[in-house]
């Protein structure tokens, strides 16, 4: 379980452009569950997602991962947790241009020191799972939006994480590609992964994927709906 | 341990592919860097080679040379003065020397004429340096003619072509007998060019020089250590021209490194953010940047050094020679003896590769320590 206890985030603290992206909020996310953070732009969902996934430290409050307090851990340990526990799917995909789809998928596993041949085989299998085996050697900039999205998902899964984090995953996809994404996530959920998504796309939060929808507004949790 | 090696391998792989992805930028970087190393290395090699040539020459030079001056200008010295100088305590021997220069107007070259101390050629024959041999197309056994002081040509048979460890010493040299020398230059029989003294104790050089000037006030004793100091002032790194070239190259390098230290493109920052977000540690990113800096600087260093070596020793410093040599007496052109001083290479390495690698890491370290959630915003 991920437990956020009264976490807040203030950017540019003490400067004239100080901005509170998140007011103290508390949230528990159970494992093997899919949680959708819903809300308009600037509501604080990406910030909350980033804090829970160890991408940044909260200005105040504490976060627990399986009852272990992680907020005060040194950077090295946070990186290790990020690498082994979380798989990220970003809004802009954040794939590295100039590299092939295969290389992009392998990148998160480089620091683990896994044998190259094994890593390559796993990355290929992962791409094939998303029907991208033929495009493994294609450079990222040659791929369509849907293909790039699937490469990003394959990359998120390469270290076999327990929790998938996706920030506005459908914002650059058309409706058909968005539904394909929901299908992939449903499949991953069925395989026991915990999924946390931030989205303001009805295709995402109205799909049967979400066990729980947390609505956010102005950096606060406004409402919470649990599907039966 | 295998994991650590594999991890290094992955990071090096990624670094190389990163370098290839930015081919244009990195090639330009490599070119500028190589050019700077080339200039620095050329200056170092060139000056060191000249100093080495000079040192070889001075090894065989006498401890003290006594010249005679008239109103501050050089003139020949009476051989009879040797006897009085020999009586000074500490002087082992005094040898009157005959040597001078001859300008060959047909080939526009300056030669050094010398009567050797031992094994002089017989009257009518000479030994010549390899430079003269090549220029005049003359070999052993050939007859060669030079115009004497009175405008009348004299013919000599070539006994030997001189080969010597120092090209500077032997290249433009003509060895001939005393009789031929006096006939050729017109120096009277009781006069010599200068007197060469052997002195046992180096601490007595100054005292002996002082005694000589007291006996013969119109002489100028030249001590070998003074000549060494003169050469050092001319060719040492502190000498004017060299410091100008060296400083310009160093300044260029500092600007170049500073640009690297302060600049990291938006794309590079974004990439660092992505790598951190997907689980790379700050140390992984610094390692990647370290390899990147090392690959570029080592390549530039090696290519620059090799090009400088070829430039100095195989093209006779074609780019610097007109400025740095500058003395008309260095004709005919002589190739410098190839020589690589590891100390100099190490100095250059620490002056270029180390600071560059550090300046590559610094901006990346700043970028790598920001929160990875920056890529989400």
In CATH terms, what is the fold-level topology of chain A? Rossmann fold
Gross geometry of chain B: elongated
Distance between the termini of chain A: 20 Å
The largest pleated sheet of chain B is described as:
6 strands, mixed
Q: Which regions of chain A contain 5 or more consecutive residues with pLDDT less than 50?
A: none
In short:
The complex is a heterodimer of chains A (228) and B (377). With 228 residues, chain A is an alpha/beta fold.
Descriptive overview:
The complex is a heterodimer of chains A (about 230) and B (about 375). Chain A has one domain: P-loop containing nucleotide triphosphate hydrolases (Rossmann fold). A 6-stranded mixed sheet of chain A has the order 6-7-8-3-9-10, sandwiched between helices. In chain A, α4 crosses α5. With about 230 residues, chain A is α/β, with parallel strands linked by helices. Chain A contains 7 helices and 10 strands. About 0% of the residues of chain B have low confidence. Chain B has about 375 residues and is of the alpha+beta class. Helix content of chain B is about 55%, strand content about 20%. Chain B has 13 helices and 13 strands. Chain B folds into 2 domains: about 200 residues, no CATH class; about 160 residues, Barwin-like endoglucanases. In chain B, the strands form 3 sheets. A 6-stranded mixed sheet of chain B has the order 5-6-10-7-9-8. At the A-B interface, α1 and α2 of A face α1 and α10 of B.
Properties at a glance:
heterodimer; A: 228 residues; alpha/beta; Rossmann fold; 6-stranded mixed sheet; 4-stranded antiparallel sheet; 7 helices; B: 377 residues; alpha+beta; Barwin-like endoglucanases; 2 domains; 13 strands; elongated
């Amino acid at each position: 379980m991920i437990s956020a206890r009264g976490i807040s985030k203030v950017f540019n603290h003490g400067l004239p452009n100080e901005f509170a992206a998140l007011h103290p909020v508390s949230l528990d996310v159970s494992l093997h569950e899919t949680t959708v953070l819903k809300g308009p732009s600037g509501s604080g969902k990406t910030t909350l997602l980033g804090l829970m996934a160890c991408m940044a430290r909260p200005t105040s409050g504490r976060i627990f991962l399986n009852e272990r307090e992680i907020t005060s851990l040194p950077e090295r340990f946070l990186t290790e947790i990020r690498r082994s526990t979380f798989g990220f799917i970003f809004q802009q995909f954040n794939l590295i241009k100039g590299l092939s789809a295969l290389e992009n998928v392998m990148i998160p596993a480089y620091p683990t020191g896994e044998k190259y041949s094994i890593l390559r085989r796993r990355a290929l299998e992962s791409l094939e799972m998303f029907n991208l085996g033929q495009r493994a050697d294609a450079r990222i900039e040659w791929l369509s939006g849907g293909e790039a999205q699937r490469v990003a998902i394959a990359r998120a899964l390469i270290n076999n994480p327990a929790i998938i984090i996706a920030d506005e995953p459908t914002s650059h996809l058309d409706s058909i590609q968005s539904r394909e994404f929901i299908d992939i996530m449903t499949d991953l959920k069925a395989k026991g992964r915990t999924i946390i998504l931030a989205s303001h796309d009805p295709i995402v939060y109205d799909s049967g994927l979400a066990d729980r929808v947390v609505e956010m507004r102005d950096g606060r949790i406004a409402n919470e709906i649990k599907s039966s | 341990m295998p994991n650590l090696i594999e991890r290094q391998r992955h990071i090096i792989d990624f670094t190389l592919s990163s370098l290839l992805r930015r081919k244009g930028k990195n090639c330009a970087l490599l070119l500028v860097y190589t050019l700077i190393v080339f200039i620095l290395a050329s200056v170092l090699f060139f000056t060191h080679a000249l100093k080495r040539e000079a040192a070889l020459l001075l090894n065989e030079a006498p401890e003290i040379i006594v010249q005679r001056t008239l109103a501050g200008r050089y003139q020949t010295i009476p051989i009879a003065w040797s006897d009085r100088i020999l009586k000074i305590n500490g002087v082992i021997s005094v040898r009157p020397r005959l040597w001078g220069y001859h300008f060959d107007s047909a080939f526009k070259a300056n030669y050094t004429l010398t009567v050797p101390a031992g094994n002089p050629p017989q009257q009518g024959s000479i030994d010549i340096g390899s430079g003269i041999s090549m220029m005049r197309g003359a070999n052993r056994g050939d007859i060669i003619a030079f115009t004497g002081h009175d405008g009348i040509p004299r013919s000599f048979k070539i006994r030997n072509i001189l080969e010597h460890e120092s090209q500077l010493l032997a290249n433009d040299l003509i060895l001939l007998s005393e009789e031929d020398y006096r006939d050729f230059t017109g120096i009277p029989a009781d006069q010599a060019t200068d007197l060469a003294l052997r002195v046992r104790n180096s601490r007595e050089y100054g005292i002996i020089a002082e005694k000589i000037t007291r006996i013969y006030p119109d002489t100028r004793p030249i001590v070998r250590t003074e000549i060494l100091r003169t050469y050092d002032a001319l060719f040492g790194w502190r000498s004017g021209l060299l410091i100008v070239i060296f400083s310009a190259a160093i300044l260029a390098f500092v600007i170049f490194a500073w640009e690297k230290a302060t600049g990291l493109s938006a794309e590079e920052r974004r990439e660092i953010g992505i790598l951190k977000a997907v689980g790379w540690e700050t140390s992984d990113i610094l390692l990647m940047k370290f390899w990147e800096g090392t690959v570029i600087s080592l390549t530039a260093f090696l290519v620059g050094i090799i090009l400088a070596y070829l430039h100095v020793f195989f093209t006779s410093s074609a780019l610097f020679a007109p400025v740095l040599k500058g003395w008309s007496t260095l004709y005919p052109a002589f190739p410098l003896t190839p020589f690589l001083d590891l100390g100099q290479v190490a100095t250059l390495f620490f002056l270029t590769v180390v600071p560059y690698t550090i300046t590559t890491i610094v901006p990346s370290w700043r970028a790598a320590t920001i929160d990875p959630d920056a890529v989400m915003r």
